Amino acid sequence: MLRIGGHMSIAGGVTRAIDRALVHGCEALQIFTKNANQWRGTPLDPAEAVRFRARIRETGITPVVSHASYLINLATTEPTLREQSIAALVDELDRAGALGLLGVVIHPGTCTAGTEKDALRLVADAIRRAFTARPRRKTMVLLEHTAGQGRTVGHRFEHLAAIIGHLRGSARVGVCLDTCHLLAAGYDIVSEAGYRETFDAFDRLVGFGRLKVLHGNDSKKPCGSRVDRHEHIGRGCLGEEPFRRLLHDRRFAGLPLLIETEKSKDRAPAGPIVPDPFDVQNLDTLRRLRDTATVR
């Protein structure tokens, strides 16, 4: 079975994210290690990093991954932005490594000039440079399949395969699939036939061995819209059935299914840790689907 979890805030310190995960019954976890809308973050307190790693061992929450800053664009040709993006990726790897995380989830980027093929090579070159800067790090870069808005790359399985190929199949590169992004990018995972064809294509082009994380989000927009708008589980264009299939598909056994759905507006991130009603709703829906469907 998949391990159900979600993205939790680090307000008040990174270890507080683990406490939030526990309150919600999470089995796996995703965090930002700094403000996702800023280039630079406050350095991690080494003592806090030690506490974080200890708490992860104590709780058995696994895997834990981080999501990279939204400012990073590994596909850009603009020199200043490119250097900033590569430096920021190295910093993300350092922060994730200090916390003992499996890897850093990152959007491949947006093509600012040239062809799609050029952009894919730029993404791979940026990752290669980050790995070269930190040759002893084991922390993975987890390429997130995108919805395909504008000139973003990574919305086709062929894109992910090309990046991995340019990196000569590096073992430090994995993949993150997002259910909302799959639908928006044109992969019909709603119908049984479309679900089967989608993941057969993924296995053929990328391989299940590369898949390390799943983001579980419903979609406000229909198949092929190429618009990334998350919706609560079962309330959008996906509905419950694709999640039921995922949760009982043996090919995904042991992988994390992490929600990134809307949080409640009245929550107090830095205050006492209490369950978020929206997170409870979405996580409970996934648990119900996992507990009641027939194993495929």
Give your account of this protein's structure:
By secondary structure, this protein is of the alpha/beta class. It has a single domain, classed as TIM Barrel. Helix content is 39%, strand content 16%. The chain has helices at 14-23, 46-59, 79-99, 116-133, 157-166, 179-184, 192-205, 241-247, 277-292; strands spanning 3-7, 28-31, 64-67, 103-106, 109-110, 140-144, 152-153, 173-178, 211-216, 218-219, 230-231, 256-259. The strands form 3 sheets. Strands 1-2-3-4-6-8-9-12 form an 8-stranded parallel β-barrel. A two-stranded antiparallel ribbon has the order 5-7. A two-stranded antiparallel ribbon has the order 10-11. The N and C termini lie close together (11 Å). The mean pLDDT is 96.
What are the salient characteristics of this protein?
alpha/beta; TIM Barrel; two-stranded antiparallel ribbon; eight-stranded parallel β-barrel; 296 residues; 9 helices; 16% strand
